[in-house]
Amino acid sequence: MSSQVLRLPQTARYYATNGLADDLHADAVAAASSTYPVESFDIIVVAFPPIYPAALSDSKFTFSGLGSVGGSKTWINGSLNSRVVAHELGHNYGLFHANRWQVSDGNPISNAGESLEYGDDFDTMGQGGLDAHFSMFGKNRLGLLPDSAVVDVTQSGTYRIYRFDHQAASLGQTQALRVFRDGLSWYWVGLRRALNSHPAINAGAYVIWAPSAEGKTQLLDLNTPGIDTNDAALALNQTLSDSEFGLTLRP
For the chain, how far is it from start to end, CA to CA, in angstroms? Predict the structure, then answer.
């Protein structure tokens, strides 16, 4: 099917300065419906040249990409690349942001910490780059990592896990450990190896808190908490102790 120019009823400035993202999406779908079978698609991505404030000073479109969580709409504002598109499609398929548990007292699991939006520098749903993958929690939610590849740890022992960030990862291998923490979250333990620019992450256990159901994950920065995430992984022979919940992790 050949492409053609489709003109929307309003200008880019009109949509952007009035913050009418939904109207832009609806008008784009309506314009395309005369030529394309838009009703046959689960998700509609509307991509357009940049109209964020840096390109249009009075624009209210402050996003480079936007996706409705569990919905069918995505907007790409001048950033049509695999990183942004994958992130927004993650929202469409039900994922929330990958955050970081930001602390200021040196304790990576401090009760005084707070969730820093987009703070996981290694997750597609955070600030992860082109070498990032969704977390093992995210892949499990998406159905890409089956429950059979996730081990619920209910007793002390030694458990082996395999990397989850490779297209050839065997679904017959354990790719994540899940340890109950409280009524709200679990520890998820995985192994990343694709982050060539972050060797310390590749060499240790990637540990996050994840919700019992849907919601945002929290990267635990286990070496220089609150300062630098490049050494966030739990290194070999390093111990993480959560005395409040009687848990110790040691790779």
Answer: 54
